[in-house]
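batch_manifest entry 22 of 60
target: Methylenetetrahydrofolate reductase
source organism: Aminobacter aminovorans
requested by: lab member K.T.
priority: normal
notes from requester: please return tokens only, no post-processing; we will run our own comparison against the previous entry in this batch. if the run fails, retry once and flag.
--- input ---
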Amino acid sequence: MTPPRPRQPDEHPDGIDLPLDPLPGHSSRGRLERVLRRGEFAVTTELNPPDSADPEDVYNRAKIFDGWVDGINAVDASGANCHMSSVGICALLTRMGYAPIMQIACRDKNRIAIQGDVLGAAAMGVANILCLTGDGVQAGDQPGAKPVFDLDSMSLLETVRIMRDNGKFLSGRKLTTPPQLFLGAAVNPFAPPHDFRPVHLGKKIAAGAQFVQSQYCFDVPMFRTFMNRVRDLGYDEKCFILVGVGPLASAKTAKWIRANVPGIHIPDAVIKRLEGAQDQKKEGKQLCIDIINEVKEIPGVSGVHVMAYRQEEYVAEIVDESGVLKGRRPWKREARADDQRVAERLEHILHDDVTESQVDMVKTAH
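--- output ---
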């Protein structure tokens, strides 16, 4: 048996799968809110969902980020393509002690289903929810699907805030136990009209956003202008702002994204830099590191959100080489004395469907 080791910061002493004790002034019992409220520079990332029903596919993706991030976004059918649900991913991640940020997109569910998912997520130990409108179905591989959009990101924020703070459903019916959640939203400082973007952030804060993750930042001067206005309006004191960053695999990839993905602004200078590099993938990683080192110095920036689609193996290198953690080590999934209890719980939940290898994986951790 693996010998006990000292408890990590922001970890429940009685089990890695248990929520942390509540703290005064905190709306959740999660690690991400604690890190941000302590004034530490936070790092989050995304776990792109598998086209699979095998839990190992989720765990294998999550362990890449071990010890380097403070939260992992469980993506909710981004691009209107079907994958494992964000609810399912969160169920697996919380069981193993990870700190998921559950995305909820309004495209596929009405307010009844969404409010039920919020309660279910909180019951599983999810402490963070990111409220999104969602891409239109025409963007995905099933354009004949019927979109819902009963709510949008703004009304979704208001809905979850009412559930948490007022202890009520939208219908007015009381909740027995309100969810304890840290609420997030997405912002795009690079989409026109640019002068409206800080105002739009203010609307999301008023609706309930406590932290935001931005669209990819490849234009630091444009982002700096956005933050100047945000500070003028005082929004940086009301909300934690995490800047979206990520590596570009090549100049060809950058051109394709710029031409085909709405809302992502990639300046010509970025493409020229990649084109002039002998190893474009390596240069794309270095570009991401350089951007992190610039934006982390901008007043009002509380962290970065590293999006490395199909380059997830670079996340640890990017965080390490950028030095943003300043020696701090986020929570890491390690073998410990309570692994046997968690493995037994997993086996009980899945009954005969769990494979011996899956239980062994939990027992040995990684």
